[in-house]
Amino acid sequence: MSTRDNSGAPLLDVRDVNVVYRGSRWRSPSFHALHDVSMQIRAGETVGLVGESGSGKTTLGRALLGLAPISAGTVTFDGADITRANRRARRALSRDIQVVFQDPYSSLNPAMSVESILAEPLRAQGVPGAEASARIGQLLGQIGLEADAGRRYPREFSGGQRQRIAIARALALKPRLIVCDEPVSALDLSTQARILDLLIDIQEQTGVAYLFISHDLSVVRYICHRVAVMLKGRIVETGDGDTVTSRPRHAYTNRLLMASPIPDPARQAERRRQYAALSS
């Protein structure tokens, strides 16, 4: 793990954030997706946000990116309030806040070469052509792909390689925070490990911070410094990554732990029995 900056103000400060989706029809009930969610992320730190499907973890990530409406509360990035930043401000923020999505097969435009995919955010920020070309070569090296990979198309790569390309795209503008929304859940176990190691290496080299969204406690334990557990739109437990993912205090976190598979058949059978007892 990289060295974190534990001094001074956090890079990202989320305070009492609520997200309410209004009913699409007259008299349709509203849906309260997030309830008074608070968390902090410091420079160079990885904070895991874990919970089952529908818990609200992706909604929080979308709210931080300006893709979900914040009904109450505040989001502060590097001391500036970005809770309701307009389109121009969000465009400027894209230099500092980026995202890696879950599915490497759908997150890359199949009609664009890898070079064009990586050049797109650079062009949007007005980076000159020669500088952009040099940056693309640097990015391909950083993710472990050959320089000629830029001339190829996403369909010519494996799932793990595509996710590396998605990570390179997120890194193009040298952001300070990346929202990783289930970035390894669509990959096989050996590829997952390589992508996680890549993210850790990049953090050690650049000092970038991650909000790492996942449903898998074993993945979160591997990469995260701190962990927040979400249930029905609320944070129910936070703490050191090793502690929360191995000795949880909250019953819900314990159920998540018991639901995580382990390679030892005897221990897995015992874990299934414990999970059944917790769920009964």
Characterization of this structure:
The protein has helices at residues 57-64, 87-93, 114-124, 129-142, 159-171, 189-206, 217-223, 241-246, 251-259, 265-279, and strands at residues 12-21, 31-41, 46-50, 72-77, 80-81, 97-100, 177-181, 209-214, 226-231, 234-240. The relative contact order is 0.16. Helix 5 (159-171) runs parallel beside helix 6 (189-206). The protein has a domain at 39-68 and 84-247: Rossmann fold, CATH 3.40.50. The chain contains ten helices and ten strands. The strands form two sheets. Strands 6-7-8-3-9-10 form a six-stranded mixed β-sheet, sandwiched between helices. The chain is α/β, with parallel strands linked by helices.
Could you report the average pLDDT, rounded to the nearest whole number? Answer: 90
| CATH-derived topology of one domain | Rossmann fold
Helix count, DSSP H or I runs of 4 or more residues: 10
The name of the CATH architecture of one domain is 3-Layer(aba) Sandwich
The SS-based structural class is: alpha/beta
Q: Spatial order of the strands in the main sheet?
A: 6-7-8-3-9-10
CATH superfamily heading of one domain: P-loop containing nucleotide triphosphate hydrolases
Structural Rg:
20 Å
Number of strands: 10
Report the major sheet.
6 strands, mixed
- Quaternary class: single chain
Overall geometry comes to globular
Write the H/E string, N to C.
EEEHEEHEHHHEHEHEEHHH
Strand percentage: 15-25%
CATH class of one domain equals Alpha Beta
**Estimated helix fraction:** 25-40%
Keywords: ATP-binding, Nucleotide-binding, Transport
GO biological process, one term: transmembrane transport
GO molecular function: ATP binding; ATP hydrolysis activity
Pfam families: ABC_tran
